[in-house]
Amino acid sequence: MIDNYGREINYLRISVTDLCNLKCQYCMPAQGVKKKRHDEIMRIETIEKIAQAAVNIGIKKIRLTGGEPLVRRGIIDLVSRISKLKFKGLEDLAMTTNGLLLEQYAADLKKAGLNRVNISLDTLDPVKYHKITRGGDLTQALKGIEAAQKAGLSPIKINVVLIGGFNDEEIVDFVNLTKDENFEVRFIELMPLGEASDWDKSHFLTGEEILHRVPQLIPLPTKGKIGVARLFKLPDSKGKVGLISPLSNHFCHDCNRVRITADGKLKPCLHDDVELDIRDYDEDHLEQFLMDGIYGKPVQHHILKHDYIPVARNMNEIGG
Questions:
Q1: Where does this protein have coiled-coil stretches (predicted)?
Q2: Is 202 annotated as a binding residue?
Q3: Is 194 annotated as a binding-site member?
Q4: What is the pLDDT of residues 202-241, one digit of tens each?
Q5: What CA–CA distances, in Å, run from 217 to 18, 208, 214, 239, 255?
Q6: Any binding-site annotation on 63?
Q7: Residue 65 known to bind ligand
Q8: From 61, 162, 239, 317, which residue has the greatest number of CB atoms within 10 Å?
Q9: Does 299 belong to an annotated binding site?
Q10: 129 marked as part of a ligand binding site
Q11: Does the pLDDT value for residue 305 go beyond 80?
Q12: Using an 8 Å Cβ cutoff, are 69 and 17 in contact?
């Protein structure tokens, strides 16, 4: 599917819930979120139909997100249903998770057809983890990573939101995780949206900070489009390091994705409040719903403009 600017859109992120078992400071308000009524959240059957429609129009990759997708009732069944679309053109089915429930679910997810996971992990310090997540247990997250490895949900990508004054002193520690394990540690620039929209500028570091702290990183050659992450590796390491720089080095010209929120809103761009409501479409016209969203993608975001107004939703509402 080609959008109005010649970009091939082949990647769909579907949020299955805005609820989470953590309350990360940049993602969710301290009081948490009010649970939506059952009729305000997309049914499992609707998500399956969206996935089917997406593959019909050329989507090759689907990622399930949240909130925390593993708190959604019926998630294993949903993975099983969507994975059957691999016979119709789907090439990759992945999930973004905080990892706390992977010890319980990793084997079942793999058996149901999930290919791999991205695991959000912003610190390797248990005290800081408890603080940034407002109560989380780092030990459980690390057990989740081990369970994902054992189940074969690989390659495992570890998503680290880079926050100045919080985890920038752990950059070397995160990079060193790639020495002996086939992890891709991805440093993501903190974005000014939702809870973080009014944070002090000192917290917003660029991806170049990684290269400054770890100058021995070697850039990896790219094939075709650069994509979201610029990839590097340590000499003789098993894994990779990715830099995702939506602010300092935006990749809008290569953006290949659209998102659907748990309450059925299609977002052509993460950093824009424009949304299409699935309730405006009959379920027999979901392909049109998706195509309208794709054709509605802007040429790029405007985060760095002086008059930019941050999007109203928090990340737990949008989907990672």
A1: none
A2: no
A3: no
A4: 999 999 999 999 999 999 987 655 568 899 999 999 999 9
A5: 36, 12, 6, 12, 25
A6: yes
A7: no
A8: 162
A9: no
A10: no
A11: no
A12: yes
- Express each pLDDT in 242-282 by its tens digit: 999 887 877 788 889 999 999 999 999 887 888 999 999 99
| Tokens linked to 264 | 């059925």
User: Is residue 313 marked as binding?
Assistant: no
The answer on whether 24 is annotated among ligand-binding residues is yes
Residue 197, marked binder: no
Tell me what the mean pLDDT of segment 46-62 comes to.
Answer: 98
Residue 67's pLDDT band (cuts 50, 70, 90): very high
In percent, the amount of the chain with pLDDT more than 70 equals 95
The answer to the question of whether 258 is labelled as a binding residue is yes
Structure tokens at 44: 């499992």
Q: CA distances (Å), 209 to each of 160, 223, 304, in order?
A: 13, 25, 19
Q: At what angle do helices 102-112 and 138-151 cross, to 10 degrees?
A: 20
pLDDT, tens digit (0-9, with 9 covering 90-100), for 156-196:
999 999 999 999 999 999 999 999 999 999 999 998 877 88
27 has binding-site annotation: yes
Tell me whether residue 135 is annotated as binding: no
Angle 75-83/102-112 helices, nearest 10 degrees?
A: 30
CATH architecture type of domain 11-318: Alpha-Beta Barrel (3.20)
- Please indicate if the annotation marks 269 as binding a ligand: yes
pLDDT of residue 214: 98
Locate the domains of the chain by residue range. 11-318
